[in-house]
Design a protein that fits this description.
InterPro entries: ArsA/GET3_ATPase-like, ATPase_ArsA/GET3, P-loop_NTPase. By secondary structure, the chain is of the alpha/beta class. It contains 13 helices and ten strands. The chain has a single domain, classed as P-loop containing nucleotide triphosphate hydrolases (Rossmann fold), CATH 3.40.50. Helix 1 packs across helix 13, helix 5 packs across helix 6 and helix 6 crosses helix 9.
């Protein structure tokens, strides 16, 4: 059995992944707010081209530039960046080969899109390389960002996405591409990084979370916390409620006690008990992973700006702090 950890990992790069539909982008945004609290500055980065961050904050699609998007509790600042593989490649060509306008011409000719399409490993190096640069960037001896949060691909693809050294092995053995991938992996495998997994208390997301923990650990990536999203209030387990008890309660409340109403309520109680027992078992499975487990509440009103700040407060109470 893995050794259980209870403290939320301190890191500079927080990679957030999860099965599709678990709310990983929402959790990544809330985590960025929590890390920026108290006058700090965080960068929230998306790398999938989905423009999922902007709608959460009521903004137009993000450009390929870092821009302020929110004020965190107690005066911090969250900035955001939507990394575009083509633009990142142009930056790369300018940085290492000084192509400048020639690189822009390559884009017009479609060469950039061609290069990133036929060499997916190159695309991942460019995307993760941009994130790594933000993590390590300094200005006059001080880090520009106290923390960087990456809204990463889903659990089914995240290990391949992050394992850039393996992905570029067939592209380059030496040179700038190899150096870039080595630098990215040095950051990703270091204590400054934590990969967090978002899940729901449902069988498929929990299984994918367990599989991802095994896969990520197998390639040497540091596992952070398990973030259980949309948790409802405490449920009753092994509750035994008879129709007679329901009838007494309905009568006391002045509500109908006909057979149809009683059967419907009895069925609902049974479904509730089964669901509660399943969630209890799934939570035990998550505990077995040996990582901190943080519950994030179900927000009845949906996800809006107020909801993000509510989730950020929960994360802060769970010990989230910029390192």
């Amino acid at each position: 059995m893995p050794e259980e950890s209870t403290s939320f990992p301190q890191a500079r790069l927080h990679v957030v992944t999860g099965k599709g539909g678990t709310g990983k982008t929402t959790v990544a945004a809330a985590l960025a707010l929590a890390l920026a609290a108290g006058g700090r500055r965080t960068l929230l980065v998306e790398v999938e081209g989905r423009q999922g961050i902007a709608p959460l904050f009521g903004l137009d699609p993000l450009p390929y530039s870092e821009r302020p998007i929110a004020v965190a509790p107690e005066g911090g600042e969250v900035r955001a960046l939507a990394v575009d593989a083509e633009e990142a490649l142009l930056d790369y060509l300018e940085m290492f080969y000084k192509l400048g306008r020639a690189g822009r011409m390559l884009k017009k000719l479609g060469a950039i899109d061609f290069a990133t399409t036929i060499a997916p490993g190159m695309r991942d190096v460019l995307l993760t390389g941009k994130v790594k640069e933000a993590v390590t960037r300094a200005d006059r001896g001080r880090r520009v960002y106290d923390a960087v949060v990456m809204d990463a691909p889903p659990t089914g693809r995240v290990a391949r996405f992050l394992n850039v050294n393996h992905e570029v092995a067939g592209l380059a053995k030496v040179g700038p591409i190899k150096s870039q991938s080595d630098g990215v992996m040095a950051v990703l495998r270091s204590p400054m990084t934590a990969v967090h997994l978002v899940t729901l208390l449902e069988e498929m997301p929990v299984q994918e979370t367990a599989d991802a923990v095994t896969e990520l650990a197998g390639i040497g990536l540091p596992i952070g916390a398990v973030l259980v999203n949309s948790v409802r209030s405490a449920s009753l387990v092994d509750a035994k409620v008879t129709q007679a008890e329901l009838k007494r309660g309905l009568t006391a409340a002045g509500l109908p006690t006909d057979r149809g109403t009683l059967k419907g309520l009895t069925d609902e109680v049974s479904d509730h008990v089964r669901r509660a027992a399943l969630e209890q078992r799934l939570r035990a499975d998550l505990t077995e992973l040996g990582r901190p487990v943080v519950d994030l509440p179900f927000l009845a009103g949906g996800i809006d700006s107020d909801g993000l700040y509510e989730l950020a407060d929960v994360l802060r109470n769970a010990g989230v702090r910029a390192s």
